[in-house]
Amino acid sequence: MRILVVNVNTTQSITDAIGKQAAGAASPGTEIVPLTPSFGAESVEGNYESYLAAVAVMETVRAHPEPFDAVVQAGYGEHGREGLQELLDVPVVDITEAAASTAQFLGRRYSVVTTLDRTVPLIEERLEVAGLSARCASVRASGLAVLDLERDEQAAVDAITEQAARAVEDDRAEVICLGCGGMAGLAERVVERTGVPVVDGVAAAVTIAESLVRLGLSTSKVRTYARPRPKRIVNWPPKAG
């Protein structure tokens, strides 16, 4: 089984971290292929960058030369999953939905701890669209930019664990979801601080993707995610210069 795990930003070190987390969650015999888009922002922290990332991820997957069995979109609260589902005949799993759906097996209410406050509405909207918001206790911002997660690991751990603890104590969350692909590998530290289950979206998405492939299931094509109708697309891809 081969699973493409696609970073939504263009920072290779984040792709590497996501790929490592995905490989650690994968079963023996599953090949993880981490991909970085060829264009887009170095980090995705708003609607403009998210829509740009959606196009970049779709084009990156479309251009992949080898066969694959599933795709994981490794951006938290980002756009584009629906477009991938239209384009592909294999399962597509988004880490936002994978984390939240997994959390609901583990406790009555879950909270998401993410990066900047401006990303909170995007995550809330994606959870609502996916029908996963009813049991969300809160979406909390750590105040860190995506790239800050790499620049100062201890500061990142402190900020994320603090917000996770407040989610448990103040919001009555029983499960924590790590709300950024760049937070891969921090689950143990949050468990130590809070004592509750912590769900990493990348690991959850890989596990779900494997299960769908083994069950022989993929996206329904009869209506919402039917393949795009054949038509002329003007000036795409754009020519350099």
Structural notes for this entry:
The protein has 241 residues and is an alpha/beta fold. The protein is built from 9 helices and 8 strands. The strands form 2 sheets. Strands 2-1-3-4 form a 4-stranded parallel β-sheet, sandwiched between helices. It has a 4-stranded parallel β-sheet with strand order 6-5-7-8, sandwiched between helices. Strand 1, helix 1 and strand 2 form a beta-alpha-beta unit. It is globular, with a radius of gyration of 17 Å. The N and C termini lie far apart (40 Å). 46% of the residues are buried. Belongs to the HyuE racemase family.
Order of helices and strands: EHEHEHEHEHEHHEHEH
Class computed from helices, strands and strand pairing = alpha/beta
Q: Can you summarize the main beta sheet?
A: 4 strands, parallel
Proportion of residues in extended strands: 15-25%
Ends distance: 40 Å
The amount of helix comes to 40-55%
Q: Count of DSSP helices? A: 9
Low-confidence stretches: none
What's the number of extended β-strand segments? 8
Mean pLDDT across residues = 93
What's the arrangement of strands in the largest beta sheet? 2-1-3-4
Q: Quaternary status of these chains?
A: single chain
Radius of gyration: 17 Å
